[in-house]
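Data deposition worksheet. Section B asks for the primary sequence of the deposited chain exactly as it was used as input, without tags or linkers unless they were present during the calculation. Section C holds the resulting structure in token form. Section D is free text for depositor observations; keep each observation to a single sentence. Incomplete worksheets are returned to the depositor.
Section A, Depositor: J.P.
Section B:
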Amino acid sequence: MPKPSLPSRWTIRRRRPAPPGTTPGRLEAIAESQQPKLTAFAYGPEDVVEIEDVEVEDLAALRERFPVVWLDVDGLGDASVLEKIGETFSLHRLALEDVLSLGQRPKVEPYPDYAFVVVGQPRVEEQEIEQVSLFLGDGFVLSIQERPGDCLDGVRTRIRAGRGRIRTMGSDYLAYAIIDAIVDAYFPILEKIGEELDELELEILESPEVETLGRIHDVRRLLQAFRRTVWPQREAIHMLARDLPEFISPETAVFMRDCYDHTIQIRDLLESFRELASDLMSMYLSSVSNRMNEVMKVLTIIATIFIPLSFIAGLYGMNFDPSKSPWNMPELEWAFGYPFALGIMGAIALVMLIYFWRKGWFD
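Section C:
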């Protein structure tokens, strides 16, 4: 998987909630989303079937024939398709309503015959964290997202090739594999964030610019968006690993706990990066302040040197007439008066520069 570039702004994909008083369980399609595309993977230890654009009516036959059926739905532009899927798998309308309410907090909701799971998937190109809804039941897994394109190609390849244990395990292991792939998709982005923070640190130490401050803010916004997703996602995965033995077998629970450990690693990286970003902000402000102090010190030295010179120049600029009194600046009629005044100014400036140098003001 290629290392993604670090986008400037990340957001959590949301949808405006239904107006107050709306009937609970009302399914309203997302107008800007595409029509749902259904792809089915049905498999057992010896055989696998992959059907694109599968009809909802054909899913019952697949469930009778294969131990595990994975229905992958891309697109939320038609609520009637979700209604048919809900009727086929006996899904509660409130859970289906949450599927269409984008921006849900990652969570796990157990129902009598299945578990409803919401996780957040990072999408690098769109600079968004997209909601992925999972339904885990006996012999089936449903994954539903708004747009095509995800980080689950590795899971599909393992199913097609029969690599690993995925085709010998149940639907709970498939759910683990999907969640684990989504969790692991954060690591390449976090690696890029670490590199970005290292570059920002060097830039601040060498030559901080105004653009540096904007890049620090971009990283902090990205970390904040990830944090809002990763923290509840960690609790949801912990619940799957520890508290739902009716949906997660003991053998799969071991793998789910490993996935939970990955979320702990992501959380720790996020917290350390957030602290580093805050430190970089303080470093930047301190560096800018130091540069300003250096400028002010130079200007102060220049101003201090010119204060006595300005006094001398102002003194001899007064309009006194030496012919009226011998005390009215007699040096104005002296042949060496002008060189004498310049010499005094130069001597005062030199003495002050030597004094400042010995005081260490030029260090």
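Section D:
Confidence is low (pLDDT under 50) at residues 1-5.
The beta strands are 11-12, 37-43, 48-52, 68-74, 107-110, 114-123, 128-137, 140-145.
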